[in-house]
Structures are given as structure tokens and as C-alpha cells.
């Protein structure tokens, strides 16, 4: 990749208004994103890129917009928009008029995965909540006092992010579905949520693990279920269901300096920055395979589709590299559907077969076993769109006999 000839500008996007300072004509790139991403992710990525590729330090310019940068991208005010949400139908229509579509790998680039959690003050004695308890706090507002959860007799101060936040959209879709978040909740910015979880022992809020504030709570599907901690490893293993992709949107296929910047983000150096900021890098693998059938990857699918979605395709390449490097020779694929898809067992079989084809094309010697599960064992509620999306998956396990030995016969490919 060529050296950077000029400084890299970051545009942070939070609300309405005009640029805080005039644009710098010598800038090579202009980036935008909402407050939660622009506070740390953009500066750290741009700063690291600038230090490695240029002697000119990056400069920061702030503009304000409710669109999170996507409108500025459409208006050619910025070169790329960082976002944790999908483009809206109206934004997609505008993009098509301009000759590109946001629903394309040329324009929508996944750079990380954000872990979303329910957070409380560090002194809060709770360590986990059930799905129903979260729904009672944030959706139906039927749980209003901490005493109902075994805590002090004190009103719960429940906070949510502002409309348009990708974290809010994901959280709302997952837990509340069509009924939406309760109108009684306190609507604040990401910065205000961080302050509340630091200062108020009776606050509870949706949060990103990357924010590094408060105490993130584990989730339990049912009261008697084991709590699942929000963590990078549990996202990769498919055990924690609440996560969202972090996108970089561009106006069609990037070229020149922008292409080099996105290539760098996808490189080990860029993904290391992602990891340090507590996002899940696309290259992350669990450190250990210490059970008989360790879950190594979970791949997601769109409704009624047997083709892995965009993030899962990226993860597949990482999985294949790991299987080759560590000489794993036998994997088990369990296919799942949500509870509304037609012919679920056939579809779960087709999903597992599609993954087997991708694996076998890269590793003909790999033995692949398929188990169709249909709608069994959901890891999220099936009564919300996001929950159903998480449940449409293929889980990739390593079989008990994991490592190829020099004196062992290699099974035929599946």
C-alpha cells in the first residue's frame, strides 16, 4: 500500500448543525460516524493508520448530523461513514439514484462486531438477568423497582440510547420486537449512559462492551438456565446472542487511499486496534479448544436462505485458515432455523450442506458430519425479528478426535 500523502481527517457525527471548523483542503480522506463510534474507534483506527503509513499526523474535524454520517456520505461531504445500523429504505433509494447500493459488499464493509449488553453500576449486586426481566425493565416497564430483582427498595433508572442509534435498534429488535421500548424510559446519549453507569448505583442501561463503563450483566434464557457472559469469545462461539456488525459505508467500490485504509483495517494491524477497543475482530478465534466438541464458529443466515450472510462469509475464511493451520480433520455442523421458517429440518440440512461445500472446497480431506436441528435449541427469543435472525445459524464443532497425526489415516471428505 502506498504512503499517505496528506493528513487523515475524522468527522464525528452526533446531532444537527454545521461543521465546528472549516474543512482542511489538504485532507486525503474524510470519515464520519455517530458519537459512540467517533469517540474512540475512528480516532484510534485513523491514528494508527496514519502512524504506520504517514509522517503527517491525522487531524480531527467534527460535524454534527442526525443521520450518523450516511446522509453526509450521500451528499459527498465525506468519503466513508462508520455505522452500526443498516441504511434506511430512503437512504437506499438515494444511493440507487447515485448509481450504487448500500446492500452490496462493494459499499458495505464489515470491520468489526460490537457486543451489546445490559449494564449496571459496578456496586450493583446483580450479575445476570433473564430475558423476561430485561423485557420487564425496558419493554413493558412492569419492573420498576430494584426490590423486584432482589436489590434495594429503590426505583430503577432505566436509560436507552437516542433514536437512530444502531445499538438501540439492535437492543429494541432483540428484546421488544414490534411493541418497542417503553416510552417511560430515559433517552440519553452514549456519553450520558457512561456517566450514569459510573455515578448512579441505581441506573441500568443498554451499552456496548467497547465503552468500558459499568458492569455488563450476563443473560439467562430462562431462570434456571446458565448465565452467559457478554464477551468476545462467547460471540465467536455463538453462545452470547446480542451483537451487531460495525460497517464502513462507501459510495460504491472504494479506490485509492480509501481502499488502502479499508485494507489496513482488515489486516492484522487494523484488527489488533479493533481488539484493543473491546470490539470483536473478524480474525478472533477462541484461545483454547478444551472440550470434546468445542464450538468454534457460528454462521448466520437470512430468512429462508441457505447462503451464509456477509459477516459469516468473512468468518468462514478465518475458520478455514484455522482448520488448516491446526490440522483439524473432523468437524460437525449443526443446522438451525427460527420457528417460523417453512420445512425447518430440510432448511437446516441445506444450511449445513452449504457450509460443508465451502469447507470441502477448501479442504477436500476434511471429514464433515451434518446434524439438522430445525428450530430446536434457540439461543434467542423467536418472538422478535432479531431473535429469529440469531437463531438462523449453523454451528461448527470440532469432533472429539481433533488433530491429524502422522500415523493416522485421513477419512474421506464429507
The gist of it:
With 414 residues, this protein is an alpha/beta fold.
What features would you describe in this structure?
It is a single chain. The protein is an alpha/beta fold. It folds into three domains: 8-111 and 246-276, 3-Layer(aba) Sandwich (D-Maltodextrin-Binding Protein, domain 2); 114-236, D-Maltodextrin-Binding Protein, domain 2 (3-Layer(aba) Sandwich); 286-398, 2-Layer Sandwich (60s Ribosomal Protein L30, Chain: A). Helix content is 31%, strand content 21%. It contains 13 helices and 16 strands. Helix 6 links the parallel strand 7 and strand 8 (186-188). The protein is globular and about 60 Å long. Residues 1-27, 57-63 and 401-414 have low confidence and may be disordered.
Q: Approximately how much helix is present in the residues?
A: 25-40%
Q: How many domain units?
A: 3
- Which architecture of the largest domain per CATH? 3-Layer(aba) Sandwich
Question: What oligomerization state is this entry in?
Answer: single chain
Please count the helical segments.
13
How would a textbook summarize the main sheet? 10 strands, mixed
The total beta strand count reads 16
CATH superfamily of the largest domain: Periplasmic binding protein-like II
Mean pLDDT: 83
Topology-level CATH name of the largest domain: D-Maltodextrin-Binding Protein, domain 2
In whole angstroms, the N-to-C terminal distance is 40 Å
Low-confidence stretches: 1-27, 57-63, 401-414
Shape: globular
Helix/strand class: alpha/beta
CATH class (first level) name of the largest domain: Alpha Beta
Amino acid at each position: 500500500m502506498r504512503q499517505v500523502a496528506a493528513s487523515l481527517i475524522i468527522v464525528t457525527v452526533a446531532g444537527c448543525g454545521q461543521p465546528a471548523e472549516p474543512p482542511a483542503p489538504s485532507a486525503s480522506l474524510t470519515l464520519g460516524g455517530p458519537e459512540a463510534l467517533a469517540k474512540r474507534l475512528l480516532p484510534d483506527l485513523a491514528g494508527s493508520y496514519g502512524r504506520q503509513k504517514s509522517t503527517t499526523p491525522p487531524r480531527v474535524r467534527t460535524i454534527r448530523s442526525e443521520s450518523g454520517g450516511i446522509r453526509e456520505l450521500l451528499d459527498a461531504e465525506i468519503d466513508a461513514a462508520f455505522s452500526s445500523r443498516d441504511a434506511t429504505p430512503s437512504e437506499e433509494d438515494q444511493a440507487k439514484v447515485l448509481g450504487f447500493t448500500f446492500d452490496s459488499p462493494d459499499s458495505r464493509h464489515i470491520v468489526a462486531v460490537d457486543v451489546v449488553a445490559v449494564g449496571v453500576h459496578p456496586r450493583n449486586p446483580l450479575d445476570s438477568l433473564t430475558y423476561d426481566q430485561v423485557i420487564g425493565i425496558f419493554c413493558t416497564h412492569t419492573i420498576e423497582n430494584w426490590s423486584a430483582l432482589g436489590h434495594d427498595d429503590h426505583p430503577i433508572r432505566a436509560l436507552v440510547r437516542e433514536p437512530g442509534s444502531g445499538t438501540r435498534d439492535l437492543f429494541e429488535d432483540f428484546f421488544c420486537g414490534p411493541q418497542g421500548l417503553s416510552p417511560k424510559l430515559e433517552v440519553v446519549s452514549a456519553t450520558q449512559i457512561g456517566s450514569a453507569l459510573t455515578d448512579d448505583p441505581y441506573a441500568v442501561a443498554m451499552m456496548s462492551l467497547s465503552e468500558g463503563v459499568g458492569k455488563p450483566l450476563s443473560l439467562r434464557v430462562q431462570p434456571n438456565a446458565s448465565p452467559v457472559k457478554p464477551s468476545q469469545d462467547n460471540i465467536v462461539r455463538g453462545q452470547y446472542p446480542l451483537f451487531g456488525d460495525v460497517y464502513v459505508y462507501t459510495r460504491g467500490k472504494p479506490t485509492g487511499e480509501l481502499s488502502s485504509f479499508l485494507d489496513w483495517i482488515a489486516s492484522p494491524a487494523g484488527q489488533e486496534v479493533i481488539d484493543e477497543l473491546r470490539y470483536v475482530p473478524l480474525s478472533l478465534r477462541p484461545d483454547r479448544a478444551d472440550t470434546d466438541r468445542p464450538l468454534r464458529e457460528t454462521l448466520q443466515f437470512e430468512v429462508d436462505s441457505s447462503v451464509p450472510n456477509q459477516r459469516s462469509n468473512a468468518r468462514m475464511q478465518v475458520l478455514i485458515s484455522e482448520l488448516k493451520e491446526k490440522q483439524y480433520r473432523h468437524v460437525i455442523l449443526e443446522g438451525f432455523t427460527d420457528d417460523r421458517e417453512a420445512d425447518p429440518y430440510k432448511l437446516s440440512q441445506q444450511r449445513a450442506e452449504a457450509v460443508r461445500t465451502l469447507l470441502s472446497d477448501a479442504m477436500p480431506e476434511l471429514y464433515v458430519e451434518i446434524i439438522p436441528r430445525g428450530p430446536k435449541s434457540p439461543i434467542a427469543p423467536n418472538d422478535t425479528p432479531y431473535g429469529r435472525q440469531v437463531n438462523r445459524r449453523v454451528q461448527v464443532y470440532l469432533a472429539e478426535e481433533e488433530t491429524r497425526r502422522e500415523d493416522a489415516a485421513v477419512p474421506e471428505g464429507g
